[in-house]
């Protein structure tokens, strides 16, 4: 069953996109419980995500201004999958990323809620 009422973790460095993402995801009746804006915050937030029962993560590809490789998102996603088996990941970046189960480009931020609901089992 797709996560109709997902418990969500978000890592996004851009304040505007982060705030929009939270608003859109919660409007789609999902619950955001962890929000991170740096790689360190993202990694540190995994323990809380486990405690809160997070089943979906929205992960930006680049959490540092200097890097545009998508490596940040790949690193965070790898740790999430390691520590929360079965978690679904939506990559959220201006460039197509391969670390997620689904991808939403930042220009399509309004689609985040629907993308979470549509994730496969």
Tell me about this structure:
The protein is α/β, with parallel strands linked by helices. Helices cover 37% and strands 21% of the residues. The protein contains 5 helices and 5 strands. It has a 5-stranded parallel sheet with strand order 2-1-3-4-5, with helices on both faces. The protein is globular and about 35 Å long. The N and C termini lie close together (5 Å). The mean pLDDT is 92.
Give me some keywords for this one.
121 residues; alpha/beta; five-stranded parallel beta sheet; 5 strands
Q: In order across it, which strands form the biggest sheet?
A: 2-1-3-4-5
What best-fitting shape do the alpha-carbon axes yield?
globular
Low-confidence stretches: none
* Helix content bin: 25-40%
| Average residue pLDDT | 92
How large a portion of the residues is in β-strands, by DSSP E?
A: 15-25%
SS elements, strand count: 5
Q: Counting H and I runs of at least 4 residues, what is the number of helices?
A: 5
Task: Furnish the topology, listing elements before pairings.
Blueprint: E1 7-11, H1 15-27, E2 31-36, H2 39-44, H3 46-52, E3 56-60, H4 71-83, E4 88-93, E5 102-105, H5 112-117
Parallel strand pairs: 1-2, 1-3, 3-4, 4-5
Structure summary:
By secondary structure, the chain is of the alpha/beta class.
């Amino acid at each position: 069953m797709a996560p109709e009422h997902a418990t969500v973790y978000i890592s996004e460095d851009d304040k505007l996109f982060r705030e929009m993402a939270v608003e859109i995801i919660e409007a789609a009746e999902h619950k955001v419980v962890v929000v991170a804006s740096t790689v360190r915050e993202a990694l540190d937030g995994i323990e809380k995500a486990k405690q809160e029962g997070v089943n979906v993560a929205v992960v930006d590809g680049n959490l540092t201004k200097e890097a545009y490789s998508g490596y940040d998102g790949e690193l965070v996603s790898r740790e999430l999958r390691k520590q929360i088996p079965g978690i679904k990941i939506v990559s959220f970046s201006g460039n197509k990323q391969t670390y997620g189960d689904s991808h939403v480009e930042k220009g399509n931020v309004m689609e985040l809620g629907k993308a979470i609901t549509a994730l496969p089992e």
